[in-house]
Amino acid sequence: MALKAIGNGVGGACHMTPRACLHPKSSLSLRMVERKESEKEMGPSPSSSNPQDQFKGLRSGDLEKNARALTRDCNALPKPLSSMDCLTSSDGSAIRVAYQGSPGSFSEDAALKAYPHCVRVPCEHFEVALKAVELWHVDRAVLPIENTSVGSIHRNYDLLLSHRLHIIGEVQIKVDLCLLALPGAKKEDIQRVFSHLQAFQQCEKSISDLKAIRINFEDTASAAQLIAERGMRDAGAIASARAGELYGLKILQNKLHDEDANITRFLVLSREPILPKTYGPFKTSIVFTLEEGAGMLFKALAVFALRNINILKIESRPLRTSPLRLVDDLNHGTAMYFEYLFYVDFEASMAETRAQNALGHLQEFSKFLRVLGCYPVDTLL
Ligand SMILES: O=C(O)C(=O)Cc1ccccc1
């Protein structure tokens, strides 16, 4: 039975200002984020529930005055970012980036690659990290979305849809998995191996000869941390070399991952979109469903092919709100087809006319279509 060692939230109360004041060792928990949500510590709210209210019963002279006031209010609203490299938040302090896991995790590496001088805010779960952005506790979140050997992280695709955040960037992280243990421990002493499921899946072959019990953790770094804190001489962690340094463990074996090029792609999420540009390699991520179901997917892909737009990725996820399509056929009775959400990354910027025309065309036969983000391609490894 896989024992889930839970990343420890901060015990007791944590009074967070709109910008969470978390000790680096602590991590945001859902409880902490939701408590603040209940206290409605949100970001700037519109001056009235219905912006039109301010124009009711106004004389023309008031309209000009009000228009100036509205302009002033709009100037106070957060503006679209010019690029993901906006290195300080709107109040000039260091960007705060939420990630799932503990210090030393690969998600923290992704936060550091995206914003080298950021304040990292560890969160117990991916959901907490995204909520922290929505509730203005942090400025960004990083979210692992796929790996070169394990493929897509499906639950994180679902998370993208259940939150109103924008993808403003991506970072690709080389995941070099190491087997870590207490100083003095030998490989033959290892009876138990702790790590994140993603990591176990990336080194299936390498650890098959270990004959050790595998125990799933919320992240690779918390696995290393527990071994160090409890002095567990018979346990090993599969994590990064940086986690080993951080928690005082030594490397029994590195390059544990089965494939040489073991890269995880992380998305950078923000409350505001970035202004798409026509220069430089840009990609756009969208999600849609089709009026006529999956059988018409070729039509959806054709809107890009007709405009010489490369499709970089397609992922399908169940359409939980209406999972089946029943089709009555006189000869064969009623057929049941699964319904899907389609996630597509294509190689163009929404600033380009061809991309705008492609989406306008796709919209003609989509039941639902949302642009998740338009952002620069990460070319640095
Ligand atoms: O557990 C971590 O370090 C994470 O950030 C999740 C993860 C684990 C393995 C590969 C990529 C991301």
Describe the fold and architecture.
Residues 1-25 and 39-63 have low confidence and may be disordered. Helix content is 27%, strand content 28%. The chain is α+β, with helices and mostly antiparallel strands. Helix 10 (297-305) packs antiparallel against helix 11. The strands form four sheets. Strands 1, 2, 3, 4, 5 and 11 form a six-stranded mixed sheet that branches. It has a five-stranded mixed sheet with strand order 8-7-9-6-10. It has a four-stranded antiparallel sheet with strand order 13-16-12-17, with helices on both faces. Strand 14 (324-329) and strand 15 (333-338) form a beta hairpin. It has eleven helices and 17 strands. It is globular, with a radius of gyration of 24 Å. 3-phenylpyruvic acid binds at residues 101, 105-107, 144, 175, 196, 198-199, 219-221, 264. 3-phenylpyruvic acid (PPY) binds next to helix 3, helix 6 and helix 8. InterPro entries: ACT-like_dom_sf (IPR045865), ACT_dom (IPR002912), Preph_deHydtase (IPR001086), Preph_deHydtase_CS (IPR018528). Its EC number is 4.2.1.91. Pathway: Amino-acid biosynthesis; L-phenylalanine biosynthesis; L-phenylalanine from L-arogenate: step 1/1.
